């Protein structure tokens, strides 16, 4: 094609374009008139707050919030306000008209160093507001102080995971180790200073070579009788302490876990206090520290690696509630069995697991509150020609994606509260049960949180990917919950192993099972009706029966399979490993039955009325969605193929029953508006041309502060 022909076709195209444009501009022309009418028929989208479009709630959301939070509603609201009011919590205004709305969230665009310093500055601010008072020094048995602390921790996590973890490591891993493993001399010396942040603590258990297998750690402690000191050494690269929260920048002290070698005998893992930095932040002699580097989330926590080059700590720094070394080098312990001694050293991790289980449900609540509110204001496609577009939440498919997750979040809240209460009332006798429940619930609730957040992210389409809309970033911030404080898969194996132990012991001694809710196994096997009607499917009797049936059958199958392997000559350990598929199904069956019981108890405690009715619907939804998703119900025949289809149908029926309550349910989650995100409110206004570009605004604000000599990122020591 020569240039003249190409220019003539360009001219033809330009002329056509000009004619079309004239048609569109000139209202006198018939074609233009029809175009104008079409434009009028589809006016620009307007945002209607869901509170207006949805009508009044059938129940009082504050009442459900009181049940779901379980305690400390006023304290929580106080702390939320304290965070909203401080510029350190990055308030940002969104909205182009009127006043807009203010949201608070960390600035995840900051470098990891900046995020770490901001975390410390926020801690400094919270300390000045008295948030941490009594966290380590309140009198034993002061349940009120304990509950307030737990409520505060939940609020801090709702703002930012790094903030909650940095505080958690200092107070509950370092401080907890001193409380649990230490004795009066350690309590007197360290607890008040820890509460006041005079010392900043970390917890050095994990090594490069050993994470889940704590017993295999390679750091060595020996006792030097002549000086009355322990000598702690990192003998090889795989023994370097790894992932230690607080170690990279801020911690002044650490608890070191090491194998205690006494006179050629390895007495097992013990815990020692050591100083790693001086008051000016300089690393102590014979200690080397490196950064773990940038992570996919949680960059406000300075995770570090530590090597100990024969550091010396006084004999008194052995945390000696479980075992001690006398000045003459004699090793003494009230717990003779090394297995039990080791278990006692893991006790502080229990609180971490309780806290993670509780905290993770709130992340699901944030995701769900945002996704449901968005689905109540966002439309997509019309299903009739020229008809209005449908609200996302009016699509059965969207209901199926979000409504069961609402039921799971509610059910799991009750389970988390149950665990929290059990932990507060702990006795030496209940420690084992708490270990099992906390392991099971930590694993199942954190896994559920990740899939809930993913579904919520997708339910918000592209908006779900914007950092300011929180859900996407929450996924990467909270992913680690399935790994730290006990890897989920390892924890679930421990749960099934413990259940097996209870079962085998009861069989051997010919006594009924007691504890862990397993008493139902002593009763006759429940009967499951052949044809599951809607009313049977919604009855709590059927739901508990089928959950119990699954648990007892799996426990028996697991025990039988393990003994069959043993009969073929396998060791007990290998037999349990080979029966892993059954172990996995069993641990889930135990956990889901426990969760069902807690929501059922909450429902039964209510007087008749709309709230009880809605909770009943949610309990049914929780039960049925577990049946629909849990392959074991079909795999082992607890549900026939026909009944599995009936369950699926009932899930859909429940979706449309619960749909009208969706807004009230997410309101009852108690997440303040400022901790949600722009798409949970007027997302059109938040995105107008005149709405501030907040990332630019924030960095401009930071520059302004700095030009006035204020370093926003400077850490208060
Ligand atoms: C951000 C972050 C912060 C942390 N903070 C701290 C801290 O402050 N202090 C501290 O001491 N530690 C900390 N940790 C370490 C954490 O506790 C460990 O990462 C965790 O215990 C898992 O150990 P690992 O990473 O070595 O994984 P591994 O134990 O190597 O596990 C890897 C995989 O193998 C599987 N696996 C392991 N054992 C078995 C088994 N017996 N059977 C079947 N499968 C198995 C696991 O399920 C997992 O999928 C932190 C970790 C992270 C990521």
From TrEMBL:
The keyword Oxidoreductase applies. Residues 202-310 form the Acyl-CoA oxidase/dehydrogenase middle domain. InterPro entries: ACOX_C_alpha1, Acyl-CoA_Oxase/DH_mid-dom, Acyl-CoA_Oxase/DH_mid-dom_sf, Acyl-CoA_oxidase, Acyl-CoA_oxidase_C, AcylCo_DH-like_C, AcylCoA_DH/oxidase_NM_dom_sf. It catalyses: a 2,3-saturated acyl-CoA + O2 = a (2E)-enoyl-CoA + H2O2. It comes from the Eukaryota. Its cofactor is FAD. Residues 349-500 form the Acyl-CoA oxidase C-alpha1 domain. GO terms for biological process: fatty acid beta-oxidation using acyl-CoA oxidase; lipid homeostasis. GO terms for molecular function: acyl-CoA oxidase activity; FAD binding; fatty acid binding. Keywords: FAD, Fatty acid metabolism, Flavoprotein, Lipid metabolism, Oxidoreductase, Peroxisome. Its main location: other. Residues 543-676 form the Acyl-CoA oxidase C-terminal domain. The keyword Lipid metabolism applies. Belongs to the acyl-CoA oxidase family. This is Acyl-coenzyme A oxidase. It comes from Ananas comosus.
């Amino acid at each position: 094609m020569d240039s003249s022909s190409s220019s003539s076709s360009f001219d033809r195209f330009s002329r056509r374009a000009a004619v079309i444009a004239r048609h569109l501009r000139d209202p006198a022309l018939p074609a233009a008139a029809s175009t104008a009418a079409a434009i009028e028929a589809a006016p620009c989208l307007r945002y209607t707050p869901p509170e207006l479009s949805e009508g009044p709630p059938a129940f009082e959301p504050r009442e459900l919030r009181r049940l779901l939070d379980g305690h400390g509603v006023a304290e929580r609201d106080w702390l939320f306000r304290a965070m909203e009011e401080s510029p350190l919590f990055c308030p940002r205004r969104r909205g182009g008209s009127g006043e807009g709305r203010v949201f608070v969230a960390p600035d995840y665009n900051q470098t990891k160093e900046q995020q770490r310093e901001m975390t410390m500055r926020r801690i400094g601010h919270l300390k000045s507001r008295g948030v941490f008072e009594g966290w380590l020094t309140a009198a034993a048995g002061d349940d009120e102080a304990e509950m307030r602390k737990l409520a505060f921790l939940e609020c801090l996590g709702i703002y930012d995971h790094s903030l909650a973890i940095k505080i958690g490591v200092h107070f509950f891993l370092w401080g907890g180790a001193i409380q649990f493993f230490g004795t009066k001399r350690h309590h007197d010396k360290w607890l008040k200073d820890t509460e006041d942040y005079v010392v900043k603590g970390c917890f050095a258990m994990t090594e490069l070579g050993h994470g889940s297998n704590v017993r295999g750690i390679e750091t060595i402690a020996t006792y030097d009788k002549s000086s009355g000191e322990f000598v702690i050494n990192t003998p090889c690269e795989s023994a370097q302490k790894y992932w230690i929260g607080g170690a990279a920048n801020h911690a002044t002290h650490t608890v070191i876990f090491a194998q205690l070698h006494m006179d050629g005998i390895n007495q097992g893992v013990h815990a020692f206090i050591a100083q790693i930095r001086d008051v000016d932040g300089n690393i102590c002699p014979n200690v080397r520290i490196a950064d773990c580097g940038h992570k996919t989330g949680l960059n406000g926590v300075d995770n570090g690696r530590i090597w100990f080059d024969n550091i010396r700590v006084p004999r008194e720094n052995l945390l000696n509630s479980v075992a001690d070394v006398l000045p003459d080098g004699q090793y003494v312990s009230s717990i003779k069995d090394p297995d039990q001694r080791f278990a006692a050293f893991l006790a502080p991790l229990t609180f971490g697991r309780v806290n993670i289980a509780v905290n993770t449900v709130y992340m699901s609540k944030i995701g769900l509150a945002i996704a449901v509110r968005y689905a109540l204001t966002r439309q997509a496609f019309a299903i009739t020609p020229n008809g209005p577009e449908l609200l996302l939440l009016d699509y059965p498919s969207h209901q199926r994606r979000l409504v069961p997750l609402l039921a799971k979040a509610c059910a799991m809240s009750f389970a988390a509260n149950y665990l929290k209460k059990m932990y507060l009332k702990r006795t030496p006798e209940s420690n084992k049960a708490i270990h099992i429940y906390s392991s099971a619930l930590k694993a199942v609730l954190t896994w559920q949180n990740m899939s809930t957040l993913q579904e919520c992210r997708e339910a918000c389409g592209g908006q779900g990917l914007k950092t300011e809309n929180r859900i996407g970033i929450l996924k990467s911030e909270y992913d680690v919950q399935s790994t730290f404080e006990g890897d989920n898969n390892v924890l679930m194996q421990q749960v099934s192993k413990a259940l097996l132990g209870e079962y085998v012991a009861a069989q051997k001694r010919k006594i009924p099972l007691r504890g862990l809710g397993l008493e139902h196994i002593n009763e006759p096997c429940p009967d499951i009706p052949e044809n599951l009607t809607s009313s049977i499917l919604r009855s709590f009797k059927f739901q508990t029966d089928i959950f119990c049936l699954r648990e007892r059958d799996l426990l028996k199958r697991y025990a039988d399979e393990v003994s069959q392997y043993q009969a073929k000559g396998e060791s007990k350990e290998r037999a349990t490993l080979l029966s892993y598929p059954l172990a996995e199904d069993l641990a889930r069956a135990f956990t889901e039955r426990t969760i069902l019981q807690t929501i059922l108890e909450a429902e039964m405690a209510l007087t008749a009325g709309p709230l009880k009715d809605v909770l009943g619907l949610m309990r049914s939804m929780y039960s049925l969605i577990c049946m629909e998703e849990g392959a074991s119900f079909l795999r082992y025949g607890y549900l026939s193929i026909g009944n599995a289809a009936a369950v699926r149908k009932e899930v859909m029926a429940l979706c449309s029953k619960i749909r009208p309550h969706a807004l009230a349910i997410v309101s009852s989650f108690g997440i303040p508006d400022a901790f949600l995100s722009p798409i949970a409110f007027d997302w059109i206004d938040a995105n107008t041309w005149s709405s501030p570009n907040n990332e630019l605004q924030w960095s401009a604000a930071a520059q302004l502060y700095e030009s006035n000599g204020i370093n926003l990122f400077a850490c208060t020591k």
